[in-house]
Amino acid sequence: MRVASAVAAGLGLAGLLAGGAVAAPGPAEPPKLPSSALGWGRCPADQKELNEAGAQCAKVTVPLDHADPGGRTIRIAISRIKARSPERRGILLSNPGGPGGTGLAHTLALRPALEDVADRYDLIGFDPRFLGESTPLTCGAAPRPVPPGPTTTPRADFDASVRAARDTARRCQEHGGNADLLPHASTRNVARDMDAIRAALGERKLSYYGVSYGADLGAVYTQLFPRRADRVVLDSSTDPAATQYELFQRSGAPAEAALDGQVRDDVRALLRRAEQRPIPVKGQRLNAPLLRMIFKQLVQHEENDPQLKSVAADLKKAAAGEEVEPGPALAGLLELLASPELESSMTGGAIFMCGDGGWPAGGWPKNPETYWQNMQRSRAAQPVFGPYVNGMIAPCAFWRGEPREPGTRIGNDVPVLLLQARHDNNVPYEGALALHRRLTGSRLLTADIRAHGVYGRGNDGLTPVPCADRAVNTYLRDGKLPAADLTCPKPEAAR
Protein backbone atom coordinates (compact mmCIF):
# COMPACT_ATOMS: atom_id res chain seq x y z
CA MET A 1 0.00 0.00 0.00
CA ARG A 2 1.17 3.52 -0.73
CA VAL A 3 -0.04 4.58 2.68
CA ALA A 4 3.12 5.82 4.37
CA SER A 5 3.91 8.48 1.82
CA ALA A 6 0.36 9.79 1.80
CA VAL A 7 0.04 9.97 5.58
CA ALA A 8 3.44 11.58 5.83
CA ALA A 9 2.49 14.20 3.31
CA GLY A 10 1.11 16.65 5.81
CA LEU A 11 -1.58 14.30 7.15
CA GLY A 12 -2.49 13.18 3.65
CA LEU A 13 -1.95 16.57 2.09
CA ALA A 14 0.05 15.30 -0.84
CA GLY A 15 0.83 16.93 -4.15
CA LEU A 16 0.19 20.58 -3.40
CA LEU A 17 1.55 23.38 -5.53
CA ALA A 18 1.80 26.89 -4.13
CA GLY A 19 -1.42 28.38 -5.43
CA GLY A 20 -3.07 31.75 -5.30
CA ALA A 21 -0.02 33.99 -5.33
CA VAL A 22 1.76 34.41 -8.64
CA ALA A 23 5.12 35.41 -9.98
CA ALA A 24 6.70 35.87 -13.37
CA PRO A 25 8.90 33.02 -14.64
CA GLY A 26 12.38 32.96 -13.16
CA PRO A 27 15.62 33.14 -15.11
CA ALA A 28 16.40 30.40 -17.58
CA GLU A 29 19.98 30.26 -16.30
CA PRO A 30 20.84 29.43 -12.69
CA PRO A 31 22.94 31.85 -10.66
CA LYS A 32 26.68 31.38 -10.87
CA LEU A 33 27.78 28.91 -8.21
CA PRO A 34 31.22 28.35 -6.70
CA SER A 35 32.93 25.67 -8.74
CA SER A 36 34.12 22.70 -6.70
CA ALA A 37 34.67 19.03 -7.37
CA LEU A 38 32.05 16.76 -5.92
CA GLY A 39 33.45 14.38 -3.33
CA TRP A 40 31.82 11.12 -4.39
CA GLY A 41 31.84 8.29 -1.88
CA ARG A 42 29.70 5.64 -0.24
CA CYS A 43 26.15 6.60 0.57
CA PRO A 44 25.01 6.88 4.20
CA ALA A 45 24.94 3.59 6.07
CA ASP A 46 21.14 3.60 6.33
CA GLN A 47 20.86 3.70 2.52
CA LYS A 48 21.34 -0.04 2.13
CA GLU A 49 19.68 -0.29 -1.30
CA LEU A 50 21.86 2.45 -2.75
CA ASN A 51 25.07 0.93 -1.46
CA GLU A 52 24.10 -2.55 -2.64
CA ALA A 53 23.36 -1.10 -6.09
CA GLY A 54 26.84 0.43 -6.28
CA ALA A 55 25.63 4.00 -6.03
CA GLN A 56 27.84 6.88 -5.00
CA CYS A 57 26.75 9.85 -2.94
CA ALA A 58 27.96 13.44 -2.68
CA LYS A 59 26.80 16.86 -1.56
CA VAL A 60 26.22 19.87 -3.78
CA THR A 61 26.76 23.29 -2.24
CA VAL A 62 23.95 25.73 -3.08
CA PRO A 63 23.01 29.20 -1.85
CA LEU A 64 20.59 29.33 1.04
CA ASP A 65 19.11 32.30 -0.80
CA HIS A 66 19.45 31.93 -4.56
CA ALA A 67 19.02 35.68 -4.90
CA ASP A 68 22.29 36.03 -2.94
CA PRO A 69 24.64 33.48 -4.55
CA GLY A 70 27.63 34.83 -2.65
CA GLY A 71 25.98 34.52 0.75
CA ARG A 72 25.35 31.67 3.13
CA THR A 73 25.27 28.17 1.63
CA ILE A 74 23.69 24.84 2.43
CA ARG A 75 24.46 21.34 1.14
CA ILE A 76 22.13 19.10 -0.87
CA ALA A 77 22.70 15.34 -0.67
CA ILE A 78 22.60 13.51 -4.00
CA SER A 79 23.10 9.93 -5.16
CA ARG A 80 24.18 8.65 -8.55
CA ILE A 81 24.04 5.35 -10.40
CA LYS A 82 25.86 5.80 -13.67
CA ALA A 83 24.33 4.96 -17.03
CA ARG A 84 25.48 1.66 -18.50
CA SER A 85 24.36 2.09 -22.09
CA PRO A 86 26.54 3.59 -24.82
CA GLU A 87 23.39 5.51 -25.78
CA ARG A 88 23.49 7.54 -22.59
CA ARG A 89 20.93 10.35 -22.65
CA GLY A 90 21.89 12.37 -19.58
CA ILE A 91 20.64 12.58 -15.99
CA LEU A 92 17.26 11.62 -14.57
CA LEU A 93 16.17 13.15 -11.27
CA SER A 94 13.00 12.33 -9.35
CA ASN A 95 10.94 13.30 -6.33
CA PRO A 96 8.59 10.94 -4.42
CA GLY A 97 6.12 13.53 -3.17
CA GLY A 98 5.14 14.99 0.15
CA PRO A 99 6.02 17.73 0.62
CA GLY A 100 8.40 16.39 3.20
CA GLY A 101 9.46 13.22 1.40
CA THR A 102 13.16 12.43 1.16
CA GLY A 103 14.36 11.15 -2.20
CA LEU A 104 17.98 10.04 -2.04
CA ALA A 105 17.03 6.50 -3.12
CA HIS A 106 13.86 7.29 -5.07
CA THR A 107 15.28 7.28 -8.59
CA LEU A 108 16.91 3.93 -7.86
CA ALA A 109 13.51 2.61 -6.78
CA LEU A 110 12.16 3.46 -10.24
CA ARG A 111 14.68 1.19 -11.95
CA PRO A 112 12.41 -1.92 -12.20
CA ALA A 113 9.71 0.13 -13.95
CA LEU A 114 12.24 1.91 -16.17
CA GLU A 115 13.56 -1.42 -17.48
CA ASP A 116 16.20 -0.82 -20.18
CA VAL A 117 15.64 2.94 -20.01
CA ALA A 118 17.44 3.00 -16.66
CA ASP A 119 20.71 2.18 -18.40
CA ARG A 120 20.48 5.32 -20.56
CA TYR A 121 20.54 7.77 -17.67
CA ASP A 122 22.62 8.57 -14.68
CA LEU A 123 19.97 8.00 -12.02
CA ILE A 124 20.17 10.93 -9.60
CA GLY A 125 18.37 10.92 -6.27
CA PHE A 126 18.34 13.85 -3.89
CA ASP A 127 16.97 14.91 -0.54
CA PRO A 128 15.27 18.32 -0.85
CA ARG A 129 16.74 21.11 1.23
CA PHE A 130 16.21 20.81 4.99
CA LEU A 131 15.19 17.15 4.73
CA GLY A 132 17.10 13.92 5.24
CA GLU A 133 20.80 14.47 4.57
CA SER A 134 20.38 17.95 3.06
CA THR A 135 21.13 20.41 5.87
CA PRO A 136 18.28 18.91 7.90
CA LEU A 137 15.99 21.22 9.81
CA THR A 138 14.13 20.01 12.88
CA CYS A 139 11.41 21.53 15.02
CA GLY A 140 12.46 20.09 18.36
CA ALA A 141 10.77 17.30 20.24
CA ALA A 142 7.01 17.24 19.96
CA PRO A 143 5.19 16.94 23.26
CA ARG A 144 3.81 13.52 24.03
CA PRO A 145 0.24 13.59 22.70
CA VAL A 146 -2.49 13.41 25.28
CA PRO A 147 -4.38 10.18 24.55
CA PRO A 148 -8.12 10.49 24.02
CA GLY A 149 -10.20 9.94 27.10
CA PRO A 150 -13.05 7.44 27.32
CA THR A 151 -15.51 10.07 26.09
CA THR A 152 -15.15 13.01 23.73
CA THR A 153 -17.05 15.30 21.35
CA PRO A 154 -16.30 16.48 17.81
CA ARG A 155 -15.58 19.95 19.19
CA ALA A 156 -13.12 18.61 21.78
CA ASP A 157 -11.29 16.66 19.08
CA PHE A 158 -11.16 19.73 16.87
CA ASP A 159 -9.85 21.95 19.66
CA ALA A 160 -7.09 19.40 20.31
CA SER A 161 -6.05 19.57 16.65
CA VAL A 162 -5.90 23.38 16.85
CA ARG A 163 -3.62 23.19 19.87
CA ALA A 164 -1.35 20.70 18.10
CA ALA A 165 -1.10 22.83 14.94
CA ARG A 166 -0.35 25.95 16.96
CA ASP A 167 2.35 24.09 18.90
CA THR A 168 3.98 22.74 15.73
CA ALA A 169 4.14 26.25 14.26
CA ARG A 170 5.68 27.59 17.45
CA ARG A 171 8.26 24.82 17.74
CA CYS A 172 9.31 25.09 14.09
CA GLN A 173 9.75 28.84 14.19
CA GLU A 174 11.50 29.01 17.56
CA HIS A 175 13.79 25.97 17.44
CA GLY A 176 17.53 26.55 17.06
CA GLY A 177 18.51 28.54 13.97
CA ASN A 178 15.26 27.85 12.14
CA ALA A 179 14.33 31.52 11.91
CA ASP A 180 17.16 32.00 9.39
CA LEU A 181 16.33 28.88 7.37
CA LEU A 182 12.54 28.64 7.24
CA PRO A 183 11.98 31.59 4.88
CA HIS A 184 14.00 29.64 2.29
CA ALA A 185 11.91 26.44 2.49
CA SER A 186 9.90 26.65 -0.72
CA THR A 187 9.16 24.67 -3.85
CA ARG A 188 10.77 27.39 -5.96
CA ASN A 189 14.02 26.97 -4.05
CA VAL A 190 13.93 23.17 -4.36
CA ALA A 191 13.53 23.64 -8.13
CA ARG A 192 16.51 26.00 -8.10
CA ASP A 193 18.50 23.42 -6.15
CA MET A 194 17.65 20.86 -8.83
CA ASP A 195 19.13 23.15 -11.43
CA ALA A 196 22.22 23.63 -9.28
CA ILE A 197 22.58 19.84 -9.19
CA ARG A 198 22.36 19.80 -12.98
CA ALA A 199 25.05 22.46 -13.24
CA ALA A 200 27.31 20.71 -10.71
CA LEU A 201 27.09 17.52 -12.76
CA GLY A 202 28.09 19.40 -15.90
CA GLU A 203 24.86 18.66 -17.76
CA ARG A 204 23.13 20.99 -20.21
CA LYS A 205 19.66 19.67 -19.33
CA LEU A 206 17.96 17.33 -16.88
CA SER A 207 15.15 14.81 -17.22
CA TYR A 208 12.74 14.27 -14.40
CA TYR A 209 9.98 12.10 -12.93
CA GLY A 210 7.87 13.41 -10.06
CA VAL A 211 4.76 12.02 -8.39
CA SER A 212 2.19 13.91 -6.30
CA TYR A 213 3.95 16.94 -4.78
CA GLY A 214 6.92 15.85 -6.90
CA ALA A 215 4.78 16.45 -10.00
CA ASP A 216 4.03 19.99 -8.86
CA LEU A 217 7.73 20.52 -8.17
CA GLY A 218 8.47 19.42 -11.73
CA ALA A 219 5.91 21.89 -13.09
CA VAL A 220 7.65 24.69 -11.18
CA TYR A 221 11.00 23.58 -12.64
CA THR A 222 9.65 23.79 -16.20
CA GLN A 223 8.47 27.32 -15.46
CA LEU A 224 11.69 28.57 -13.89
CA PHE A 225 14.07 26.76 -16.24
CA PRO A 226 12.20 25.91 -19.46
CA ARG A 227 15.35 25.58 -21.56
CA ARG A 228 16.94 23.23 -19.02
CA ALA A 229 14.02 20.77 -18.96
CA ASP A 230 14.64 17.70 -21.13
CA ARG A 231 12.14 14.84 -20.76
CA VAL A 232 9.71 15.55 -17.93
CA VAL A 233 7.05 13.19 -16.53
CA LEU A 234 4.55 14.53 -13.98
CA ASP A 235 2.41 11.90 -12.26
CA SER A 236 -0.68 12.83 -10.20
CA SER A 237 -0.57 16.62 -10.15
CA THR A 238 -2.83 19.38 -8.85
CA ASP A 239 -4.59 22.49 -10.08
CA PRO A 240 -1.89 25.20 -10.03
CA ALA A 241 -4.46 27.96 -9.53
CA ALA A 242 -5.99 26.47 -6.38
CA THR A 243 -4.88 27.22 -2.85
CA GLN A 244 -3.57 24.44 -0.67
CA TYR A 245 -6.66 24.45 1.53
CA GLU A 246 -8.92 24.33 -1.54
CA LEU A 247 -7.00 21.33 -2.86
CA PHE A 248 -7.41 19.55 0.44
CA GLN A 249 -11.15 20.29 0.48
CA ARG A 250 -11.60 19.04 -3.09
CA SER A 251 -10.35 15.58 -2.15
CA GLY A 252 -13.41 14.94 0.02
CA ALA A 253 -16.03 14.22 -2.64
CA PRO A 254 -14.06 11.60 -4.63
CA ALA A 255 -12.95 9.92 -1.39
CA GLU A 256 -16.59 9.74 -0.28
CA ALA A 257 -17.52 8.21 -3.62
CA ALA A 258 -14.98 5.43 -3.10
CA LEU A 259 -16.96 4.01 -0.16
CA ASP A 260 -19.79 1.70 -1.18
CA GLY A 261 -22.25 -0.71 0.35
CA GLN A 262 -21.70 -2.43 3.67
CA VAL A 263 -18.28 -0.91 4.23
CA ARG A 264 -19.79 2.58 4.01
CA ASP A 265 -22.43 1.70 6.59
CA ASP A 266 -19.79 0.17 8.87
CA VAL A 267 -17.47 3.16 8.57
CA ARG A 268 -20.24 5.66 9.32
CA ALA A 269 -21.35 3.66 12.35
CA LEU A 270 -17.79 3.49 13.64
CA LEU A 271 -17.36 7.24 13.24
CA ARG A 272 -20.63 8.00 15.04
CA ARG A 273 -19.42 5.87 17.93
CA ALA A 274 -15.87 7.32 17.94
CA GLU A 275 -17.17 10.91 17.98
CA GLN A 276 -18.57 10.12 21.43
CA ARG A 277 -16.47 7.24 22.73
CA PRO A 278 -13.07 6.53 21.12
CA ILE A 279 -12.64 2.88 20.14
CA PRO A 280 -10.11 0.92 22.25
CA VAL A 281 -7.62 -1.21 20.32
CA LYS A 282 -4.55 -2.80 21.95
CA GLY A 283 -4.30 -0.23 24.70
CA GLN A 284 -4.96 2.73 22.38
CA ARG A 285 -8.13 4.76 21.96
CA LEU A 286 -8.89 5.74 18.37
CA ASN A 287 -10.98 8.89 18.04
CA ALA A 288 -12.92 9.97 14.96
CA PRO A 289 -10.21 12.21 13.41
CA LEU A 290 -7.71 9.36 13.58
CA LEU A 291 -10.19 6.92 12.06
CA ARG A 292 -10.96 9.35 9.24
CA MET A 293 -7.25 9.66 8.53
CA ILE A 294 -6.87 5.89 8.40
CA PHE A 295 -9.88 5.42 6.13
CA LYS A 296 -8.72 8.27 3.86
CA GLN A 297 -5.46 6.48 3.19
CA LEU A 298 -7.14 3.14 2.58
CA VAL A 299 -9.58 4.40 -0.07
CA GLN A 300 -6.81 5.78 -2.29
CA HIS A 301 -6.18 2.50 -4.14
CA GLU A 302 -8.70 -0.07 -5.29
CA GLU A 303 -6.28 -2.80 -4.28
CA ASN A 304 -6.65 -1.63 -0.66
CA ASP A 305 -10.38 -2.44 -0.52
CA PRO A 306 -9.78 -5.83 1.19
CA GLN A 307 -7.62 -4.07 3.79
CA LEU A 308 -10.33 -1.46 4.28
CA LYS A 309 -12.89 -4.18 4.98
CA SER A 310 -10.47 -5.94 7.31
CA VAL A 311 -9.78 -2.75 9.28
CA ALA A 312 -13.50 -1.97 9.55
CA ALA A 313 -14.20 -5.52 10.75
CA ASP A 314 -11.49 -5.30 13.43
CA LEU A 315 -12.81 -1.96 14.61
CA LYS A 316 -16.41 -3.21 14.74
CA LYS A 317 -15.33 -5.98 17.11
CA ALA A 318 -13.38 -3.54 19.25
CA ALA A 319 -16.34 -1.15 19.37
CA ALA A 320 -18.52 -4.04 20.56
CA GLY A 321 -16.19 -4.60 23.50
CA GLU A 322 -14.23 -7.57 22.17
CA GLU A 323 -10.51 -7.96 22.80
CA VAL A 324 -9.13 -7.57 19.29
CA GLU A 325 -5.75 -8.64 17.97
CA PRO A 326 -5.46 -6.28 14.97
CA GLY A 327 -5.03 -7.91 11.62
CA PRO A 328 -2.00 -7.05 9.46
CA ALA A 329 -3.65 -4.01 7.84
CA LEU A 330 -4.71 -2.29 11.06
CA ALA A 331 -1.56 -3.32 12.92
CA GLY A 332 0.62 -1.84 10.18
CA LEU A 333 -1.27 1.43 10.18
CA LEU A 334 -1.11 1.77 13.96
CA GLU A 335 2.62 1.08 13.89
CA LEU A 336 3.13 3.67 11.16
CA LEU A 337 1.09 6.32 12.94
CA ALA A 338 3.17 5.87 16.09
CA SER A 339 6.54 5.94 14.32
CA PRO A 340 9.06 8.78 14.80
CA GLU A 341 9.75 8.69 11.05
CA LEU A 342 6.16 9.75 10.40
CA GLU A 343 6.43 12.65 12.84
CA SER A 344 9.60 13.78 11.06
CA SER A 345 7.97 13.57 7.62
CA MET A 346 4.89 15.45 8.76
CA THR A 347 7.07 18.22 10.20
CA GLY A 348 8.94 18.42 6.89
CA GLY A 349 5.63 18.68 5.08
CA ALA A 350 4.54 21.55 7.29
CA ILE A 351 7.78 23.42 6.66
CA PHE A 352 7.23 23.44 2.92
CA MET A 353 3.47 23.91 2.94
CA CYS A 354 3.89 26.96 5.12
CA GLY A 355 6.91 28.24 3.21
CA ASP A 356 5.01 28.00 -0.07
CA GLY A 357 1.69 29.37 0.99
CA GLY A 358 1.01 29.31 4.68
CA TRP A 359 0.13 32.99 4.67
CA PRO A 360 -3.19 34.37 3.43
CA ALA A 361 -2.19 33.93 -0.20
CA GLY A 362 -1.73 30.21 0.46
CA GLY A 363 -5.36 29.84 1.39
CA TRP A 364 -5.01 28.63 4.98
CA PRO A 365 -7.62 30.52 7.02
CA LYS A 366 -6.19 32.16 10.11
CA ASN A 367 -9.34 31.81 12.19
CA PRO A 368 -9.88 28.26 13.53
CA GLU A 369 -13.63 28.85 13.52
CA THR A 370 -13.54 28.89 9.71
CA TYR A 371 -12.38 25.27 9.72
CA TRP A 372 -14.97 24.29 12.30
CA GLN A 373 -17.81 25.87 10.33
CA ASN A 374 -16.62 24.25 7.09
CA MET A 375 -16.45 20.91 8.89
CA GLN A 376 -19.99 21.15 10.10
CA ARG A 377 -21.38 22.27 6.74
CA SER A 378 -19.64 19.40 4.96
CA ARG A 379 -21.28 16.66 7.01
CA ALA A 380 -24.51 16.56 5.00
CA ALA A 381 -22.88 15.68 1.66
CA GLN A 382 -19.63 14.12 2.97
CA PRO A 383 -20.32 12.55 6.36
CA VAL A 384 -17.18 10.40 6.35
CA PHE A 385 -14.46 12.60 4.88
CA GLY A 386 -15.94 16.10 4.91
CA PRO A 387 -14.96 16.80 8.52
CA TYR A 388 -11.43 15.56 7.80
CA VAL A 389 -10.63 17.54 4.65
CA ASN A 390 -12.36 20.70 5.83
CA GLY A 391 -11.29 20.62 9.44
CA MET A 392 -7.67 19.47 9.34
CA ILE A 393 -6.04 22.72 10.39
CA ALA A 394 -2.42 23.05 9.30
CA PRO A 395 0.39 24.73 11.29
CA CYS A 396 0.39 27.30 8.47
CA ALA A 397 -2.67 28.91 10.05
CA PHE A 398 -0.38 30.04 12.88
CA TRP A 399 2.79 30.73 10.86
CA ARG A 400 4.35 34.11 11.55
CA GLY A 401 5.98 36.42 9.04
CA GLU A 402 5.61 37.04 5.34
CA PRO A 403 6.74 34.93 2.37
CA ARG A 404 9.96 36.01 0.69
CA GLU A 405 8.38 35.62 -2.74
CA PRO A 406 5.02 34.65 -4.19
CA GLY A 407 4.14 31.34 -5.72
CA THR A 408 4.63 30.34 -9.33
CA ARG A 409 2.16 31.01 -12.13
CA ILE A 410 2.39 28.01 -14.43
CA GLY A 411 2.07 28.58 -18.16
CA ASN A 412 4.57 27.34 -20.75
CA ASP A 413 4.97 25.09 -23.79
CA VAL A 414 7.66 22.73 -22.46
CA PRO A 415 6.97 19.17 -23.70
CA VAL A 416 5.70 17.23 -20.67
CA LEU A 417 3.99 13.87 -20.18
CA LEU A 418 1.22 14.10 -17.57
CA LEU A 419 -0.21 10.98 -15.91
CA GLN A 420 -3.38 10.93 -13.83
CA ALA A 421 -5.78 8.34 -12.47
CA ARG A 422 -9.33 9.30 -13.36
CA HIS A 423 -10.59 8.42 -9.88
CA ASP A 424 -7.68 9.75 -7.82
CA ASN A 425 -9.23 10.85 -4.52
CA ASN A 426 -6.07 12.42 -3.15
CA VAL A 427 -5.47 14.90 -5.96
CA PRO A 428 -8.63 14.83 -8.10
CA TYR A 429 -8.57 14.46 -11.87
CA GLU A 430 -9.80 18.00 -12.53
CA GLY A 431 -6.48 19.31 -11.22
CA ALA A 432 -4.54 17.47 -13.91
CA LEU A 433 -6.88 18.88 -16.56
CA ALA A 434 -6.19 22.38 -15.25
CA LEU A 435 -2.42 21.84 -15.33
CA HIS A 436 -2.68 20.29 -18.80
CA ARG A 437 -4.35 23.45 -20.10
CA ARG A 438 -1.51 25.58 -18.73
CA LEU A 439 1.25 23.31 -20.04
CA THR A 440 0.41 23.72 -23.70
CA GLY A 441 3.17 21.38 -24.86
CA SER A 442 1.95 18.53 -22.67
CA ARG A 443 0.13 15.28 -23.35
CA LEU A 444 -2.22 13.82 -20.75
CA LEU A 445 -2.41 10.08 -20.17
CA THR A 446 -5.48 9.09 -18.15
CA ALA A 447 -5.57 5.76 -16.31
CA ASP A 448 -9.11 4.54 -15.72
CA ILE A 449 -8.43 3.43 -12.14
CA ARG A 450 -8.79 4.61 -8.54
CA ALA A 451 -5.24 5.27 -7.44
CA HIS A 452 -2.72 7.90 -6.49
CA GLY A 453 0.31 7.45 -8.70
CA VAL A 454 0.11 5.75 -12.10
CA TYR A 455 3.66 4.86 -13.21
CA GLY A 456 5.51 1.88 -11.79
CA ARG A 457 2.66 0.65 -9.61
CA GLY A 458 3.99 -2.88 -9.83
CA ASN A 459 7.00 -1.74 -7.78
CA ASP A 460 4.64 -1.30 -4.80
CA GLY A 461 2.79 -4.57 -5.25
CA LEU A 462 -0.17 -2.82 -6.90
CA THR A 463 -1.67 -3.68 -10.26
CA PRO A 464 0.48 -2.05 -12.95
CA VAL A 465 -0.94 -0.03 -15.81
CA PRO A 466 1.11 -1.46 -18.71
CA CYS A 467 0.14 1.14 -21.30
CA ALA A 468 1.17 3.95 -18.94
CA ASP A 469 4.50 2.31 -18.18
CA ARG A 470 5.13 1.87 -21.92
CA ALA A 471 4.28 5.49 -22.68
CA VAL A 472 6.63 6.79 -19.98
CA ASN A 473 9.47 4.53 -21.05
CA THR A 474 9.00 5.33 -24.73
CA TYR A 475 9.16 9.04 -23.93
CA LEU A 476 12.24 8.74 -21.73
CA ARG A 477 13.94 6.40 -24.23
CA ASP A 478 13.09 8.03 -27.54
CA GLY A 479 11.75 11.48 -26.66
CA LYS A 480 8.39 10.67 -28.26
CA LEU A 481 5.30 12.00 -26.54
CA PRO A 482 1.99 10.33 -27.47
CA ALA A 483 0.59 11.89 -30.63
CA ALA A 484 -2.51 12.93 -28.64
CA ASP A 485 -3.96 12.60 -25.19
CA LEU A 486 -4.85 9.00 -24.44
CA THR A 487 -6.67 6.84 -21.93
CA CYS A 488 -5.36 3.57 -20.56
CA PRO A 489 -8.20 1.15 -19.75
CA LYS A 490 -8.37 -0.47 -16.34
CA PRO A 491 -5.87 -3.34 -16.24
CA GLU A 492 -7.49 -6.79 -16.47
CA ALA A 493 -6.19 -7.78 -13.03
CA ALA A 494 -7.92 -4.79 -11.43
CA ARG A 495 -11.39 -5.41 -12.91
TrEMBL record:
Entry keywords, A to Z: Hydrolase, Signal
Family matches, as Pfam families: Abhydrolase_1, Abhydrolase_4
Gene source species: Streptomyces alboniger
Name of the protein described by the UniProt record: Alpha/beta hydrolase
UniProt region (Disordered), positions on chain: 136-156
The keyword Hydrolase is assigned to this record: yes
Origin organism lineage: Bacteria, Bacillati, Actinomycetota, Actinomycetes, Kitasatosporales
Similarity annotation: Belongs to the peptidase S33 family.
GO terms of molecular function: hydrolase activity
Record InterPro entries: AB_hydrolase_1, AB_hydrolase_fold, Pept_S33_TAP-like_C, Serine_prot/Carboxylest_S33
Signal peptide positions on this chain: 1-23
Domain Peptidase S33 tripeptidyl aminopeptidase-like C-terminal: 383-488
Domain AB hydrolase-1, chain residue ranges per copy: 92-287
